[in-house]
Protein 1
Amino acid sequence: MSRLEDVGLSIVERPTPEDEAELVAACLAGDVAAQRALFRREFARVNATIYRILGPTREVDDLVQETFIAAFRGLARFRGEARLATWIDRIAVRVALDHVRTRRPAPAPFGLIEELIDGSVPDAQAHARDGLRRLYAALSQLSAEQRIAFALYAIDGRSIAEVAKLVGTTTVTAKLRIWRARRELMKSAAQDPVLKELL
Amino acid sequence: MKRIEVDPPTSDSRRERIERNVLNQLAQLRSAERADAAVPVAPPSNRRAWMFAGLGAAAAAAVILVISTKGSEHVPVTPIAEDTTPSRIVTPVGGESQFTVGDAVIVAASDTSVDVKRADDGGITLVVARGAVDCDVAPRNQRPPFHVIAGDVSVEVVGTRFTVARTPSPRVDVVRGKVRVRAPGGTWLLGAGDSWQPPVTGSGVEPVTTVAVASEEPAVAPAPPPPPPVEAPRPVFNAHQQYQLAQKLEATDVVRAAKTYRLVANTRDAWAAPALYGLAELDAKIDVTRGLADCNEYLRRFAKSAQAEDVSWLRTEILRSAGRRDEARVAATDYLRQWPQGSYAGIARRIASPP
């Protein structure tokens, strides 16, 4: 039987609460190495969530940054009742929600979209780029709450229960928001075959 | 409903940039907190003593006022309860005191005496008998009015953070938002960054920026002898505010941003190091040589700071971006010598290895 390393896999231990508590304590004590470790542990997921909510805009970097600053500054309030990841995700969703509520997202720059679909054949790239642009244009017409709920569920792959927890509402409300968002998107897609294919 | 596949960008350089920004900001916040903690605060027992003395002065009013007795941290304390009688806060020389009134957070500076009055309509008035108060107040749109009176100067809050000093001379400094100042001679609307002092009688000086000291003598006969000429006080240099100003200016006026960063960097303030880092990043975009000189200055002056590693790496990045590969290799090697397990060790090894 081949070893895990031989096939490019490794076992990554899920952090126990004790580890998390230690990491949080070290961060609170101002340990830069711990802050770096926490950032690196959580970055990929926070980045993905905010990106999937907002789409390819230049503001994603700023919001990811804002999320982590808010998380580090509020770390003293983390009581360990939820997993640290969930707690940070809630901050990310709140940051994204505030952003969507107050500002219209800037149009997607090509560089980011190209990075997104790197490796595809040129035609498929153009198609994917077009689809994404239409998707996020349609999403920007929705209310902030519907947009966030839909993006978390249909793009970020969260469960309804998770969506409800992250946006701070009941599962019924979360489900309703997703359903309404989808209904609006399907209306737009009726006139738009590229968007329809994506949905 | 099928899941829509949207994969986020995953480049290492982007992650490193965001990580650097986050850690820089945290380091700056820590510096600011340290600077705050350095403000002399009276020991708890003394503070209690003066608090009770102050309460004693207003004992008949059964003042419902609690003031934090915590050592060096600024902690919001129990707000003044519903009360229309004046409450007096007196801080000792060398101490300071933070308290909340409604939605406002007030810091009374050393040797300050301030009365807090609440009107029936919920309006709040602080009367500064001496010293200075720093007020962080929410915009008043739908909220009850908030006034600060210092002698014959009245400050009405539009929504802001500001400082009102009565002694040694009346002065108002606005950190953000707007305030309306009423004083003999007129009304002034101040915005963020503005300072105000009353104009010299009859000078006709526009009072938006620092001007000469006014006489606080009441206008009663007999006429006093003319006061000796008083030199205008120099504006107080606040490194943190200047640093924030430089950050804002980066988007609009790079030259002024660089000058402001340099101004702060040349001080011995806690913000000197972040300012020099900001300057290095800014200069590097305009002039590689100057950016490198800033990095070297930083590493010489702040070798043990939390950001020294980032600055060392910034030096490598500047050289790499400028296409000076050999020098970048030397810089990466230098970085690895100091931080073999550092955040950028992986990429530094790739750069440092011979082509």
Protein 2
Amino acid sequence: MACFLGIDLGTSGVEVVVVDETRRVFSKSSERYSIYSPHPGWAEQDPEEWWMDTVKAVNKVLDQAALNSLQIRGVGISGQTHGTVSLDKNFHPLRRAIIWMDQRSISQVKKLRGKFGRRLTHITGFPIACGFMVPSLLWIRENEPFIWDRIYKVILPKDYIQLKLSGV
Amino acid sequence: MSRMLAGTLLLDTAKRSWSREIINELSIPYDFFPLLYESPQITGRVTKKIAKEIFLKQGTLIFAGGADQVMMAIGNGVVEMEGLASRIGTGGLLITVTDHLVIKSNKVLYTIPTPFLKNGFLWGRFFPGDHL
């Protein structure tokens, strides 16, 4: 029977499920990872930990479900939003990800509000807040120019898992 | 390189594309940002190299997917206009479906095609707060 694998890269951990075509859940598994806070208000996670825990959870769930990998038709990925993963030319993370709950970018948020007013919300449909990609990126540009200069791509947390799985 | 979405504050949600206006005004290089896909689109396949590390066959399809709370709402069947989902995790969100753009400064909007609305939007309000 054709099955599908669902991966949810959450904030406190990764959860994986196997469902069949009728959406019956065959098996689930999860792994937890850390949030690093080297300074008050900062919240970071290590993309390599996301990946290693995802591999562990996927392998565990398929083992439990006693399915071989041939029966998994496709993989759908959901995840925590807004966070910033900065990658170099080889798609390696340049620093830990700045996740959605991070509060370091207060001054960047104030500048964005001053510069754009409501226009930014009108275009995006979102309020301006710390932890979203734009203020976090502006923070990196202002405070970690040595990282900024090496950025090749910026992606969201769950996209790092897609990148590792598919290489693109 | 692929993918998504609105919570970056860089997406022109009506046009479903990166906002050149915002990116240019902030003097951020446009090529920092990957290609965008709609949630149900296929973005790639499991590579040979990764198939040795994980119990997935080479070539297994990978779908774009999306934001956790929005995917949860769809998984719970919130795909039609009357549907409403409430999700309380590390963050909380009340979420419903619209067929047109709704922009409010205290709410969030995601562009998600649903089985019933090809160009649908899922519209939400973070907890704590008032109702939709």
Protein 3
Amino acid sequence: MWPRISAAIVIVAATSALMLAQALPNPDGIDLSGSWAARNFTDAIGNMPGGGPRPVDYMGIPLNDIGRAWSLVYSQSQTSEPERICDYYAPTYIGIGPMGLRIWPESELLTGYTTAWMIGGWADFVPITIWMDGRPHPSQYAAHDKSGFTTGVWQDDVLVTNTTHMEASSIRRNGVPSSDRATMTARFSRHDDVLTVTVRIDDPVYLTEPYYLTRSFALSRAPLNPATHPCTVTNEGVEAERVPHYKPGQNPFVNELTELYGIPQEAVLGGAETALPEFRNTIKDKYVRPSKCVSVPVSTCGGPGTYPPID
Amino acid sequence: MEYRVRRSRARAFSLGAAGLLMVSALLAMQDEGRGQGRQNQPPASAKAVAPFDPTGYWSSLITQNWRLRMVPPGKGDYIGIPISAAGKKAADAWDQSKDEAAGNQCKAYGAPGLMNLPTHLHITWQDDNTLRVETDYGTQTRMLHFGSWTASQPRKRSWQGNSVAVWASRRGGRGGPPSARYLRIATTDLLAGYLRKNGVPYGENASLVEYVDLFKEPDGAALIIWTAVVDDPVNLETPYIISSQFKKQPNGSAWAPTPCSAGW
């Protein structure tokens, strides 16, 4: 009799263990995996494929005097220098670039525990690894690189990431700088099949307060290619030991937005106050509304076919 | 003797297992009873179950699309809007003076475009199931109705339409912590209006769904991210998805109501 009971106990225990294994808790948070097509309407100018913003367009950016001065000496030709050809492709590019996001989890095989979320690469933009296993950030003296170091936590089913150890780069694709002391917080907030990514950039060197950006994405059935070809240094003909730049007070584009769009200079040069509704009172009597869209180049006016539907 | 011990052990095991089953059954019944009790109670109000407190004064942070939002752009500037050929034809014919003559200065202040304008918000609970969202720019008021609210008949169109709101779960109704919810708003009964102050149109049959998140920063600051999805197969080639940022203000000192304007 006892051997039978023992056998029954063993069977029950084994079955229970098997059921328990099958009932492993789901990973934390919600599923962000998939191909998220960029819907670049929120910042059609900043995230515009190809051109991006005009050379001197700092409107809405909380620049301090140093950040403004550094922006104004910048020449777009710097991206032809071997040393700076890859400068834009820091993690901040997730907020200012035009690309969609391919996101997937890296999980432990036996437990399903998510050790990291991955954001795939795009062209010269390197993939981002968002560590979810609680590992600490490196020492402040550790090397900074193009990838930076990113950790994430779930807060109320929103993935909140923190990026440090970035190399100096840009927060707008016209040379507005970010320093190697900048940090980035990003919130990945999914609603149905719409993903809103809110980016906060803190930079004690060039900004007076946090700079916020948002981007929206729609879930796509057509897979985005997460491949990247690491930014390669090439010779684009800039002579050695020459850094293309404009001397202080000599940036030829400083009046461009005023001439093209009638926007007063104090708005063009940015500052935290330019992002607030009450700033309109400052420029109300100076703004001259263009009679029609200014095409520089033609595509900047938009129109049918500019934003194809996603699959 | 050994056999007896084994038999008594087996009996004890059987009794224990049976006891465990009974306790489990009792607990299950008790839980079921609690569930029925909950069903008999009136549903909690939207205000009572709000996962975050959206009330107070908020200010737009115009850090993106500045020249398209902070100042009225020129005619024909459609960058950032997936405008269709029909929409472009209508926008190309836009005439500010005609809107002013017809008393249509508020056409760019309808719900699909309102939150992306440079405005302050004043958000309050009108009652336990109605959230009131006022803007000083254009002096508009949106009423977000929770619960079993239905629009009065006959239905009437307006710039802000009729909005039904829910605290939605990010997990699509599959549970999760109550704090992980956001505000989802569906708006109908809109008057045709503009997505931008240069006459980019949306029709009265456009659909508007909005998602509202509130994030608190470690330094105590709070941010609302208001994402809108406008779908209008006539005037748009694809849904127009746009996010607007609002930063919490300590008080209403910056609140400055202005009337609708077809120009500035």
Protein 4
Amino acid sequence: MTELWNALPLVIQILLKITAILLPLLGLVAYYTLAERKVIGYMQVRIGPNRVGWRGVLQPIADAVKLVMKEIIIPTKADKTLFLMAPMLAIAPAMAVWAVFPFDEGLVLADINAGLLYILALSSLGVYGIIIAGWASNSRYALLGAMRSAAQMVAYEIAMGFALVGVLVAAGSLNLGAIVAAQQGGLFSWFWLPLLPLFGVYLISGVAETNRAPFDVAEGESEIVAGFHVEYSGMGFAVFFLAEYANMILISALTALLFFGGWLSPLPQVWVDGVFLLDDGFHWLLLKTLFFMYLLLWLRATFPRYRYDQIMRLGWKVFIPITIVWILVVALAVVYKLPPWWSV
Amino acid sequence: MGFEKFLFYLFALITLWAAGMVVSRRNPVHAVLFLVLAFVSSAALWILMEAEFLGIVLILVYVGAVMVLFLFVVMMLDVDIAALRAGFIDYLPLGLLIAGIMAIEIFLIVGPANFGLHAFPAPAPAGTDLNNTRELGLLLYTVYVYPVEIASVILLVAIIAAIRLTLRRRPDNKYVDPARQVRVKKGPDRIRLVKMASETPVPVVAPALEKESDE
Amino acid sequence: MPFDAANLVPILPEIAILITASVVLIVDLYLKDQDKGLNHSLSLIGLVIAIALTGAVGGGERQIFFDGNLVRDGISDLLKGAILVVSILAFIYARPWLKDRGMLVGEFYVLGLFAVLGMLVMVSANSFLTLYLGLELQALSLYALVAFDRDSKKGAEAAMKYFVLGALGSGLLLYGISMIYGATGSIELGPVAQAVAAQGIANKVLVFGIVFLVIGIGFKFGAVPFHMWVPDIYEGAPTPAVLFLGSAPKIAAFALAIRMLVEGLPSLHADWQGMLIILAVLSMGLGNLVAIAQTNIKRMLAYSAIGHAGFIFLGLLAGSQQGYAAAMFYAIVYAVMSAGAFGILLILSRKGFDAENLEDLKGLNDRDSWYAAMMTLVMFSMAGVPPTVGFMAKLLVLESVVRIDLVWLALVAVAFSIIGAFYYLRVIKFIYFDRPAPDAPILVTSGGVRIAMTANGLALLALGLFPAALLSLCQAAFAVQ
């Protein structure tokens, strides 16, 4: 089997690896949408979709078929090229980010030194899809949504970036694999504890970056209909949807990776060494990621939408100062080797 | 090597083409988007030169933040390109002449005669172990710590200047301090019940009530 | 590599200014409108401390710090001191003007202090990178100061012009630096000088780089033909901002030229000398001729600044230690004169009125004879009339030019300075031989302004009578090398 794999040309190998990452991801996205409707349904004492298939399990497929069949309407006086390009610009970074994401020790498509920077850079590109969609639609609602979203994403990107700076100071590396390795040693060695403020800032900024409730003013269906994608129909809309959910999964997975030890087991190493399912492994990462994905849905079901000026205030005046102060604290802790995290 | 060369020429061509489109497009939004493209392809060129940190930071800072705000402004403003282009044709010959002379001069100096491979042989590839980011960081915070500190002061000045030039306090602002909003307690802070007979007409609603309702 | 705290000693004046600026920035937040004067006091205290520190850490052998990014030598000590003194004058003169217009806010002092910091960084820079960063710090602060009166359309226009042309100048300078770096492989002044000496004139890249460096320096000095921004900015910007950008930055620009050309590229002297001769002749000619036609005194002083830049170039292009010392003397003296001239304009201004035209000076003698005398000293000095210091300054640069056998250049300079004398003397005619406008109120100034202006004016006279005090310092600064 390995010989057969090695016999394949490098390009084919890489393509196969990409497929192996993206196909499950897209499947996860599809069922994440169903999970969202179900979870929020139960939280609001409703049942949620239950018509297609057993308890509605085929709902995402039905949705996909419906969206593919629908006509793509291009509004009058819209900028056609940009209008069609916008969804692609939204989804491309959301997919490309996964190239440097390690799923288990050594299990990564491209193990680059500056992995964290790469992720930051690519996730900062996602905003272009939204802005261009808003502008190219030739619609006031869409433009307003795009403007809100641009301001929001730029504001929270800084807080998010600073939170990640704290992580890289703590781990001493930009390589995601090395960051996980630095958290070795059980539940309390993970970075969530020493970097607790940064973890909070990162998670909340992540919700804001993905334009999810309670930071979803960019869509704000009660004020500006649906914001930037109000004019999109059929596949155009579906692609935006895909990108948004892929980004949510990414944020959850990154939180698990950067603050919760990734594939490391929460139990001390000596207990679990070699024990099936308790030892470190991909399943831990998946479990943690699913938890944070659930948390995002939970947030949406719980909180009312923030007002726009409150969002800006929270980003600029609360989060950025917190992160700056805590980076200093972490730097001092690293320099003075604060036990137990940096005692070596 | 061959593939790298191909990539270099590909990205170099994209950069040049995009840069040309920036100045020639009539629609300012398109021009800004081409500028973004030029940035992205020059970042790719830097990464080809093994300067991956600079390449990624170019995307992160310029494309991800600066250009977003720039695009934001251009979309909000109604830039009248026609007015800006008035006189463009008149000045075009002179401009082209000067630009041409400059281009030739620069090419003669910067061209292969002075900066060719004989003067600057291609450095050996550094290998994948070399951590560009780490090396840059070490250099910046040891040898170049003084310039780095000055640069940080420059950024501070930019912030102060921008705030001084734009921040105006508006007395008619309806903004409510969030700290005050949070402090509102249940009971008389939020709402005040006024007992009144239902039939006799009441002249005006108490002004205090209106004030409370802001919060 | 552990950090050596000894590196911090030579930049103590800079650190003092930075701390003062930060303190003002924060204190200003908590000050009520009527207490904003505290910013002024804090800034002056900071500047005085910086002067004291400059004296304390100065003197002695030339030393290099921060891995070659910073130098402390006679030039940096003297120029730092001069910049700080001139800045104190500027802050004192600016205060009443700002107060009358409700602009006495912390930002003015913060930006002013940061501009001073940028200049200090420039004069003690030992690499092209530090020079450039200091220049940008100074320029960025000055752009903001020019736009400081944000409701003024003229101010905004001036700031825009200043910004665009300043950015262009910086860009050209940077391009030149990149060429020098490409040819020599270093951005540190010492290694660049060695590499240049080794390669010599054969390297066309170096000459190409020098062209851009000289253009950049020309922009910063406002020398013809890179002078287009000067008159518009002097006219449009609020007078305190002009006071700031017309005085001490000339000293910093001189430092820029000295560090880049004299210390970085000494062996290419023949190349940049030719370029500087052209700039000098054009600047002296155009500056002095066009100034005659001005009715706006700020514009007139702008053209006069262009003319004086030409004279400073005369000393630089001589290429001798005597010439550099003369140019340094000239630059410092010009900064003091310029501060005095704009200081008088600020004194003449009052709430709702800006002294901008030559007519506004009419009958100054009848309104306040002491200030009239001081302005006369300033004008005499600018014109180069003995016994004021302006005469000595001009004499010294001319001497340095004659010594390298460029007698024709000296004659040209003398001719233009005689032409220039006309418009300076015209100002004096307005002061003494015209009646004041009937609605001109009595000049009311605070004691501080009067003391500062007296010191400023009398310094010009005293230095003219006893030039050796400053001149020996200037010569010592270059003799050490």
